[in-house]
Amino acid sequence: MKRFARLTTISALLFAASLPTGAAHAQLAPSAAAPTQASDPSEARKANIVIIGTGGTIAGAGAAATNTAAYQSAVVPVDKIIASVPEISKVANVKGEQVFQIGSESFNNERLLKLGKRVSELLKQPDVDGIVITHGTDTIEETAYFLNLTLKSDKPVVVVGSMRPGTALGADGALNLYDAVLVASSPESKGKGTLVVLNDEIHTGRDVTKSNTFKVETFRSPFGPLGYVVEGRTLFFRLPARPHTMQTEWDIDKLNKLPEVAVVYAYGNVNPASVDAAVKDGAKAIVYAATGNGSVGDYMVEPLKAARAKGVQIVRASRTGSGAVIRNAEQPDDKYDWLVTDDQLPQKARILMALALTKTNDSKELQKILWKY
Ligand code: GLU
What we know:
The protein has two domains: about 45-60 and about 70-245, L-asparaginase, N-terminal domain (Rossmann fold); about 260-370, 3-Layer(aba) Sandwich (Rossmann fold). Helix content is about 35%, strand content about 20%. The protein has 13 helices and 14 strands. The strands form three sheets. An eight-stranded mixed sheet has the order 2-1-3-4-5-6-9-10, sandwiched between helices. A four-stranded parallel sheet has the order 11-12-13-14, with helices on both faces. Strands 7-8 form a two-stranded antiparallel ribbon. Helix 10 links the parallel strand 12 (about 285-290) and strand 13. Helix 1 packs antiparallel against helix 2 and helix 7 packs parallel to helix 12 (about 345-355). The longest helix is centred in the first third of the chain and has 16 residues, at about 1-15. Bound molecules: glutamic acid. Glutamic acid (GLU) binds near residues 55, 104, 138 and 161.
């Protein structure tokens, strides 16, 4: 506990040194109070939460308060974000750690692995009760699904972002971060896999997806959120049905490289050359983000069959945004030795296929994995 309190204070002081005098007082007050809280009996019940900063709009800043969509993301350090929400120190002992400062569209396999490994290291520390990751909203759903499948811990891990920078009118980041810390601190969140918290809602990393380019209510799960966060309380109503964290076959500590999996997006007049390019580039699987229930245009069947003949796994997914793709319905998958997603969106199927290919290249086994997670 003490270590957390001291680190929070140090980071607040460092941050204060970089602030104009007036601002420093406002920001420093809550964190500076941390050491005296150690004698408060309620301190014993406070969780130790590490907040990992990776960038995104929650770390963004605009030129004017009216800039809700035009601003620079990934510029505010995580310690400064934490210091701007003094209410957090009343619910948890927090410590910030900057792992990246990027827009989440810049995540790739290497960064995903680096983040996951650091989260895993922290989760092993007995004095860490939970993790919050501040993250851009664009790919929050991919990172959360990846962590949901690969972390080996029951401790809560919550990924959080915001749709408006902290400088904007109606900024949502402060409340989202406060809520994320509450969820990460709650014993109720244990064993529920990686969670995503935004806009008063708690989602499972498996299901959640960004559905709108600018609205604060952009995140949705096709079957609804797991619960709400309101007035400092976490309210869970549902449980994730699919295996996650402790129940999966992947361990982030043992993953050092992910196989290349390409997503080819279908549209009227889709160019078969995009399949050939993925194959030439060494893709081990192609997730075909098909129309409707995984339909494949007549002129795309041969290029996909040719890719399969070269050993590349073909996964039919749907670009519709929800619903399961049915095996052997729109296409004879058994005959072509193709695979189908369950209800995973193409970008999530890409994560699952990359992980699945670290275990097997047998198409029957791969299909079982796609249906399981
Ligand atoms: N494109 C940026 C990102 O994903 C900003 C979007 C956001 O965080 O809301 O990091």
